[in-house]
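Q: Second attempt. The first request was missing the SMILES, so the protein and zinc ion are both included now.
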Amino acid sequence: MKLTEETINNLKLTIMKYPTTVIALFLSILFLSIHTEAKKPKCGAQLIHAIIAKKDPAFFSKQAAKRQEAQQNFQYKQGAFMKTTAQVTIPVVFHIVLNQNQINAIGGIAGIQKRIDSQMIVINRDYGRRNADSITIPSAFKARYANTGIQFCLAHRKPDGTSTSGADIITLPSTTRKIEETNPNGQDLFYDAKFTNGAFNTWDPSAYLNIWVCNASLGNDTNGILGLTVPPYFPNTFGYNPNEVGIILNYRAWGKRSTGFEPYISGCDKGRTLTHELGHYFNLEHIWGDDNGSCPGDAGYSDDGINDTPIQKDENYGCPTFPSVSCSVSAPNGDMFMNYMDYCDDICLTMFTTGQVAVMQAEVSTGGESYSLTQNNNICNWPAAIPSLQSTTPIQVAPNPCTQYCNVSYNEQPTQISVINTLGVQVWSAAPSAIGNTNTFINTQTLASGIYYIHVQFKDAMQIQKIIIE
Ligand SMILES: [Zn+2]
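A: Got both inputs this time. The predicted holo structure:
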């Protein structure tokens, strides 16, 4: 194995050549996907599991033991499927690791913020059993539609305590770059998305749920995978570096589409990639058991280990019609293809089950691998005193409190001005033509009274000013 190192525009990326065993594995997987068109790995879970299993033959038994332990703790000891924890909230940071062309393709800084806002809404609805499309869940499965009790908030404090919009933007060199290399241990397909200038760009993984948005193409497949998760139990169980823990998202499969022109991979524009990957983060597996299309009695058959998800032969794509029976033992209702842990299009994924929720709650409860994430809600509050991010471009806001309008003035031409509420949601933004050279008026009459933050983006800096609207 040979390590090469290059420095481009101050960005040092450590690239590892594929070990031959991994190349062989990828080729076989790519070969399979070519010859069975529909069977494309949308998510990287199977790839990463196969890579670990090559190094650690006990991988699948360790994984099953972990899941069984969680189920025993949170179902059988309680005597029933039951919710055991109050609602918890987990801080999320999005590391946007893209080149300028890719950032432009998704609408620049404003587009990124819009995707983050829509993504946060989707995962909170899906994890809070509030997704409106749950009306499509067949009545046979409706009773199992469950609330995870897990909610997510956007980080507004960096690890050093200074403010952040929740987007940590890392601009790569202008050449289009695929991020699909393995780390020195041959463990992770997208290792270098997590590196900037030779060091991990991960924010404290015991306090933040780290998400990297990158160009997750795979080989010659320009769509690549939609997402890949390193769950929090990997460091203790398989020797992963804790800074690897988190979720990789394909930059064309996150957030919710708001215009017809945005680049999205077909069927993946409703924000459900992250819903699915978060399931892996909290220790769920694919609903069909990743067993290459087996039913009970077939060689190699395995299950997702969840009692209330039906036995299912293989993954589903697109949008099947209910009932779709793949293993006769599950007749007449068949596959739960609308489960978030299947591979259907976003528009057809609508539910987690009570059994899946029991496993996820084990992860966020006392003693669980993600418990520490639930103890850091202050990360989502804006710092009381927001430091000037660049003192050479100060802004002034008057009057403050604002009554009918706020006038924000500055010395340098901004590229964007927006108003963010305390939940981190953008509630107002200036049209580019409305951004003045020296000042911009913000009409606040349509905004509810309360605390807000004006974000003024300059070419090289952002200024944030807390305001009160009366
Ligand atoms: Zn998956």
